[in-house]
Each structure stands twice: as C-alpha cells, then as structure tokens.
Amino acid sequence: MNKRSEFYNKIMIVFTKKDLNSAIWIFIGMIILGILEVVGVVSIVPFMAVVANPQIVEENEYLNMIYVLGEFDNHSDFSVFLGFLMMCVIILINGYSAFMKWKITYFVRAQGYRLEMRMLKYYLSQHYVFFLNRSLPDIGKNILTEVERVVGGIVHPGLEVMSKGIVMIFIFALLIVVDPIVALSVFFLLGGSYLILFLLIKNKQKEMGLLTTAVIHDRFKLVNQVISGIKEIKLQGSEGSYVRHYDDFAKDYSNYLARNLIISQLPRYALETLAFGSIIVVIILSILRGDSGSDIIPMVSLYALAGYRLLPSLQTIFSSLTKIKFHLPILDILTDDLSKFTSANFDRSKTKLEVNKNIEFHAISYTYPNAQNPSLDQLNLVIEPNTIVGIVGGTGAGKTTLIDLLLGLLSIEYGRLSVNGVDITPQNIQSWQNSLGYVPQSIYLTDDTIASNIAFGIDEDNINFEDVVKSGEMAMLGQFIDTLPDGYMTMVGERGVRLSGGQRQRIGIARALYSKPNVLIMDEATSALDGITEDTVMQSIKKISHKKTIILIAHRLTTVEQCDVIHVMDNGKIVDSGTYDYLLENNNEFRKMAKVKK
Question: Do 370 and 423 contact (CB within 8 A), yes or no?
C-alpha cells in the first residue's frame, strides 16, 4: 500500500459516514465559491474598459445592449452603474466567502468534538487490562491535545487546501482563456516557487512533527508526576529539578511551533514582491506589443484582481500543506485507536444478582499479557453466602488478580466463576457487578462534595441524600461530618487533599455501601487507618456481617481476626484455609505473617 492510500485510509477512519456527507456539501459550496470568484475577477474588465475609453460602449455589442436596455442618458451614468454593479458582485462574493469560512470552521470544530467523544468512548469501552498496559498520561494527551492537533493541523488545513485549490483552478482557467502564455508564465513562476520550497522543507517538517509529538508526551508525563507526587516533591525540596526539566520540554515545544509557523509564513513576503513584479512585466509586454492604454488598463486590472485573489490562495495552500506535514505523525496514533472502535453502549443494567448461594472459583488460571508465569494457577475457592472471608498472602501471591477476576475487571481465561450455581458470563456480568461494593487501598476522590464522592458517578439530581447519610454512618463518618459547617456538602479538594488518610478511606467505604451491595470487597481498605479507627470501622463491618458476604484482603492480620474463614494464598493458589486460631496454630507461614504484622 503506497503512502497516498495509507493517508486516504486514515482520513476515512477519522471521518464517519455522516461527516463525509457534510464534507460533500462543503465541497459543492467550494465549487460555487470558485465560480463566484471568477465572476468577481471578470467583473472588473468592463468597468475599467468603460472608465479608460467611454466610447467602447458603442463598439462592444454586449455593453451597448446593456446600455440601451438600461436607458442610460450618458456614458458617465453607465460607468457609475457598472461600478455599483461591480461593488454588489464583490459584496456577494465576500459574503458568500465568509459564509463558507463559517461553514468550514463550524464543520472542523464539530469534527473536533466528535473525535474527542469517539476517543473517550473508545478508551472507556476497553477492558480493564487495557489500562494496565497503557500510559494513562498518553490517554489524556490523546483526547485533550492530539485530537486538537489532528483537527487544527490536518483536517482544517486539508479543507483550506481544497477550498483555495478550487478557487485557484477556476481563476487560472480564466487567465488561460485571456492569455495562455502570460497565465502559464505566472503560474509556473509563482506555483513552481512554492512547490520547490515545499519539497525542500517537507522532510524537515515531518521530523519536527515527530519531535513535537515526543515532547508533548514528555510534558504531559512530567506534569502528571508533579501532580501525583506533590507531597514528596515539597518534602524533598525537588521543585527546582522538575522546573528545569519542564523548562527544557516547554522550550523545545515552543521552538518547534515557532519554526513551523515561520516556515509556513516567510515565503509570502518574497512571493508577493514577485507577483507584483509580474504585473509590471505584463504591462511592459503589453506596451512592447503596441497595445493602447485603453487595452492595457482593463487587462492589468484583470491580472491585478486575479493576483489579489490568487496570492492568498497560494500562500494558504502552502502554509496548510506545511502544517499538515508537521502534524501528520499524530494521525498514526489516533487512527490506530479509532480503527479498533466501532461503537459503545454505556447504558448499564440496574438489576442485581442476589447472592443466596455459594460464590465458586472452578480451576481458574490467569496470566497477564506479556507475563511469563500465571498469577493464578488452577485456583479453586468456595465462598459461603453471608460470611466474612479473609484472603491473605505475601506480595505476588495473586490476591489482587483474584479480586479483579471476582470484580469482573479481568476476563477469565481458564476455568469458571459461578454465583448461585450460575456461571458469570458477559451476558450477566453487569448484574453481578451491580451486586458488589468495592473498597480499594487507595481511594480516588474528585474535587467535589463529600456527598457526591459517596454517591460516586451519580448525577447530582439523582443522589439519594438519605442513603448518603446512612452509608456515611455505617462507615463511621458521622462524628467527623458533625464537625464540618457544611456537613456532607463540604468540598474535599482535588484528590481529597483536605482530608486525612483515614477520612478518605472511610468515604471510600461509605461509597461502597451506598449502592447497598450484596457482596462487600475490602482490598487493604483499613491499611491507612490507625488502630482505633480500624477497630471502629471493623465494628461497623461486624454490624452488617452475616447479612452480606464480606471479603477482606489484608496484610495486617488483625483485620481478619474475626473472619469466619481465612484463605492463605501463595503462587496463585489457595494453600491453606481455616479460622484465625486454626491457621495460627497449624500454618507456619501464617504464623510468620502474624508475628510480622502484629
């Protein structure tokens, strides 16, 4: 496949069928604009001819016919009429040109909106494992920055090339009819100059485009590091290091953009001089041929107006092509993702899967992409309904993988997960997930109210404030909320910076309880709490014990002391199970963990 075919295929990925239909109408509008531009250029000839030689009205049959039909009294009135008519034509052309500019701009911005939405939907429709292997700053960069580069640096300039190219073709065709030799000479002089210059700089533009794409990635990555690690940065006093690094990236980015702008704009000044020089040459050639002043003035006016229309078109085409070449590398990144996206349906089922029988893992194995060894290896596990189950094990034992499979975030490769004796499949996975409450070790909080963070992902108008309060009380947030003047409507700050670790964790627990889950999964959920707060939260959990199935993942073994059964994991398998006292008595590894964690 040649480069043109590849580029065409990528553009077809960027545009949907609806976009292409809109583009066809815009193309038709461009053709109409080209015709009007020719009418505008031609309209100056009769006006200037009459001004230069009023007697031409009697000699030219067309002018004479208009003169007679209009019942003009003298040549001066006729000249005024032609001037007024020419002004109306120019107003019409410029008005239509402004209309087309508006249509193209609106189409481009709408295309940017649709591309952003398609990219966001594509990423959100991906399975959880996709995000384990993809740079999160890159995803944000692609949606927020690279879409804009494709729209502003490829789509918009591409339409400008089409629009100005059509205008240029129509005007050039007119000049060919008037004087082929002069027209071809001017075209090859101006057009050839732009073409040679573009061929000289196109590879440099592509190289700068690649460098710009890389430096944008570095900027996003560094800013993300600063935001995520601000506490450590302030503590270590390493602000200067990050500022210096960002200064290098920002300076390079600014330089690349400046070079691209300069390259695309500088030729204009030299070629404008060349163009007006060409008009003088036309005058000289006309004089040398013995043309009279009355013949020269209309002809020069025609070329001057044609040049006035052609030069901006040539410059726009050149600057647009250089801009496309500069931004072209990013098209590969977006089309690689968009080509895999068909559609996404985010309408989620509201039904819940009642857990009144066992949850069972049947010989489940799972290996992460590009990993050599399985994280789970033929694992079998039975979780009785309405029990408190603890899962413990060292780092890399497979606890997180087990929970992610239970949550439906990872797809089971080998084996089965069943609830109430029914296998969990893509058809019922949403009902299963609706039955789950999940509390991770690190709680993500948005810069919103405590109530909105508890009712996470729910539109403000649909939040049940009574359920917010109930779940907050169950998570032992009541005493803390009472100290706040705005109560549950208190803003928590970005990522909950105004709250302590324990307060953030309890909001996370309240969030999990808000949806009234049948199964509550706490993944190291109390690890950030102090001993007293942990005891309080565990007492709250104990209140709902044996009313819900509760699964606790823990390193700190005091968390699982009250569990009905504890499963010890190692190398992706359950190696032992029993009560806390039983394991403490009979399992050496568990005893070692208990000694370390106590």
Answer: no
